[in-house]
């Protein structure tokens, strides 16, 4: 089966939905989800979204991101992220994303590891889920967007380093999707690991397909292990994340003897290293994260989902420490992109965890992932909206005008094509014919 579209978005996490929502209404857009729309890592994000608190925070936020990243970050990307962070949050406020607010209606900012101040906005302890729900609802209201679930991304359709769409498998059937612009937003690589906080189905498909098609990738060794996933002796299951915000609110890491052994707010790689050392020292497969000394009402209000999920596993976090151990969490490397998410293949973009903007360096600062997804997809949207030639719009108008008269349609089409070709490069003709 062959489908034509202006824009094909592969992946329906926050990145994919943010593209679908903000691309022009006169473009035909198809969004593919490997399984259900909700089976994406951004849906699992607990902590929140970092944002520049005020102009005085500018250097500090850049410094925290660089320091957490081991100074391997691309500074230009860090500056863009920080500068454009407030605008990204403003857009979400306009969409009525239910961020936690104080009595005066002001945003509440929390803290996580390696942040020098509180600068993380959040929706309880399931920010990703609440944000995804808002974006999904808005995208479903758009008549120019077609969502296809259970659709496996099998390969790109490309010729001479120019992408013209993708091959996908939908319920056992091949779908050839011809697209003017293709966006890979397939997420990270957690499914490749036995212990990961990611859905197992998020298994690096976009990166593998990029490598197969000689698209530039980078920093494949930059893999982040989150210090605190719930320890349980289970096979083949996603590990439950215990948000870094628990440590941000004062949670303490304890070893088998009940002693603290690390500053809980160091960057993730450092805390993970300290936990592994402690586990080896005590020949144990976990340490403990304790928040039981805080007011019960505060814990229940601040971490309702973590409370519920731990209780289901037999731990009451208001009364006892949580057994935790590191698990794979995030991939900082990926498909190399520029500051507009453009890959090394023409007409192909990558954004979100699958991409490498260079922003995170070797270790991502907590709560910079949803922000990266929003800021860089907003930039790419703006670029695509400005530069795409919406063939589908021209063709649709022509079909309407020709009113079933094939000769009129064909003659007009060739005139339009010639005009279009004059505007763009001559070597695009094959693509136009394919469309
Ligand atoms: C967390 O809540 O600890 C995860 C958020 C993130 O990965 O930044």
Automatic annotation (TrEMBL):
SUPFAM superfamilies: FAD/NAD(P)-binding domain, Succinate dehydrogenase/fumarate reductase flavoprotein, catalytic domain
Domain FAD-dependent oxidoreductase 2 FAD-binding: 6-370
Any one of the GO BP annotations: 'de novo' NAD+ biosynthetic process from L-aspartate
EC number: 1.4.3.16
Matching Gene3D superfamilies: FAD/NAD(P)-binding domain, Succinate dehydrogenase/fumarate reductase flavoprotein, catalytic domain
Gene Ontology MF annotations: L-aspartate oxidase activity; steroid dehydrogenase activity, acting on the CH-CH group of donors
Record flagged with keyword Oxidoreductase: yes
Reactions catalysed, as given in the entry: L-aspartate + O2 = iminosuccinate + H2O2
Cofactor requirements of the protein: FAD
Source superkingdom: Bacteria
Keywords: FAD, Flavoprotein, Oxidoreductase, Pyridine nucleotide biosynthesis
Protein's pathway: Cofactor biosynthesis; NAD(+) biosynthesis; iminoaspartate from L-aspartate (oxidase route): step 1/1
Pfam families per the UniProt record, alphabetical: FAD_binding_2
Similarity-based family: Belongs to the FAD-dependent oxidoreductase 2 family. NadB subfamily.
Name this protein carries in UniProt: L-aspartate oxidase
Native source organism of the sequence: Clostridium folliculivorans
